[in-house]
Design brief:
By secondary structure, the chain is of the alpha/beta class. 23% of the residues lie in helices and 27% in strands.
Length: 462
């Protein structure tokens, strides 16, 4: 006699992060984001012509949406310079399908991530209620006895902000059993300010990203809401003057900063949180003359002022920004775009659905990847590995995301007291570095290789 695997009777909604939904032009049906060939991003971030349709139109700025439609979660890797890459949600969806009664219990909430978080949260609230109603009458559940099913919200990155805001709707909150957030920037990310900034000597892909980002309310909604700006021997919050000095849109900045002052007071219903950890992460900023400098430390109160502490994060979201008090969080050594697809995160989600306790990890590591997000095609590039004592403690590979094949196994060496590796020249395309310490899931980092003029070749950009 076989043994049945445990299953939940609840309905599940998966809400992706920024970049995580495919977008199409409603009038023409033309795909605008989430294309199948990763090499599309090389053209997009060097020529810029493919990005024009993603910029907000005058109607969209006035709140008249509908020109662009989100169709489904991305099925292929996606990439924005500075914010780096996003791994598709296939592993997460497969993990969910193994613990629900029927695959129809799972709904993908694709949304137009260019638009304000508050707008998308309202859409999520109504979508969630409809999905639960449909599941309660589904043949796979209707024949069962017991209490009516409830909702489980599983959200990555920006998607967690949507879930947080949506759960302020008391009607929806009463229907939600638990909310799992994976790498959600509850208090923002300084990298959003870096992305919006003008600066000097910024390589071409980053300039293209900045040009697009400055038109998107969703990017402004990621601006940090904690004391992250150096102010003499102390620290302060980001101001409207700071953001406009960086050359960003003052109206979009004012709207987002005003909303950050009225963040929800209640945590999402039944909150379970996974945070990325051990990756070198921008946590603070210095703004001077319209130029932003990024720092890999944050500020903590201390006698007579503040002290600087490196609490790391997932490479995009500082660890403390991804943890909503007063609840605890499960740390995971992984980059932001890959947190939701890591085996450990999938296990947390499965165990939450089945009311099981997760952990502790066996052989968990603290590996971090300190790598550029853009490299010049045809040139060697160097990256660092943190959290290991010896070069032999880690193995590195480089994967071509257009083929899924390994194209390099960079030797790891100790150089000037640091553990580093040097990658061989890459052709134009989207690639992934993997660092495997033999314990937890390999840590990954996505990078873009592109033909760049000499003056546009990046150094150690955040």
């Amino acid at each position: 006699m076989g043994v049945d695997s445990p299953r939940t009777t609840d309905a599940v909604i998966v809400t992706p992060g920024i970049m995580g939904s495919e977008l199409v032009d409603v009038e023409t049906g033309r795909p605008l984001w989430g294309l199948s060939d990763p090499r599309w991003y090389v053209s997009a971030w060097t020529s810029g012509t493919s990005l024009t349709a993603l910029q907000l139109s005058a109607d969209e700025r006035d709140g008249r949406y509908g020109r662009v439609r989100a169709t489904r979660l991305v099925r292929f890797p996606s990439f924005i310079p500075v914010l780096a890459g996003l791994t598709p949600y296939r592993s997460l969806l497969r993990g969910l399908q193994s613990v629900v009664l029927h695959r129809d219990a799972i709904a993908e909430f694709a949304y137009d991530w260019r638009l304000p978080v508050a707008h998308n949260a309202n859409v999520l609230s109504e979508f969630a209620k409809r999905h639960l109603d449909a599941w309660r009458t589904h043949p796979a559940h209707a024949a069962l006895s017991g209490p009516p099913p409830r909702l489980v919200l599983v959200a990555h990155s920006m998607g967690g902000l949507l879930a947080w805001l949506a759960c302020q709707d008391t009607e929806l909150s009463a229907l939600v059993r638990t909310t799992v957030t994976l790498g959600t920037p509850f208090f923002g990310s300084p990298k959003a300010a870096v992305l919006l900034s003008s600066g000097r000597g910024i390589p071409l892909p980053h300039r293209r990203a900045r040009q697009l980002a400055r038109t998107l309310p969703g990017i402004y909604d990621l601006l940090p809401a904690y004391r992250c700006v150096t102010d003499g021997d102390s620290a302060r919050r980001l101001t409207l003057t700071d953001v406009t000095d960086l050359g960003a849109d003052p109206d979009l900045a004012a709207r987002s900063l005003a909303l950050s002052e009225t963040r929800p007071s209640l945590a999402p219903a039944g909150h379970v949180q996974v945070v990325g950890a051990h990756q070198p992460t921008v946590q603070a900023l210095t703004i001077d003359g319209g130029t932003v400098s990024a720092h890999r430390f944050t500020y903590r109160p201390a006698e007579g002022g503040v002290t600087r502490v490196d609490t790391s994060g997932d490479g995009t979201v500082p660890r403390e920004s991804a943890q909503l008090p007063p609840g605890s969080a499960t740390p995971l050594a992984q980059s932001h775009g890959a947190v939701a697809s890591a085996a450990e995160a999938v296990l947390v989600v499965q165990d939450t659905l089945l009311d099981r306790r997760t952990g502790p990890w066996q052989g968990a590591g603290e590996i971090g990847l300190d790598a550029p997000d853009t490299v010049a095609a045809g040139q060697t590039f160097r990256f660092g590995i943190t959290g290991v004592e010896l070069p032999t403690d880690v193995r590195c590979t480089v994967i071509d995301l257009s083929t899924g094949l390994r194209v390099d196994s960079p030797p790891v060496r100790r150089r000037d007291g640091l553990i580093t590796a040097e990658g061989q020249p890459l052709p134009p395309g989207l690639f992934q570095i993997c660092a495997d310490g033999g314990g937890a899931s390999p840590v990954t980092h996505m990078l873009l290789s592109a033909d760049l003029p000499d003056g546009d070749r990046p150094d150690d950009l955040v």
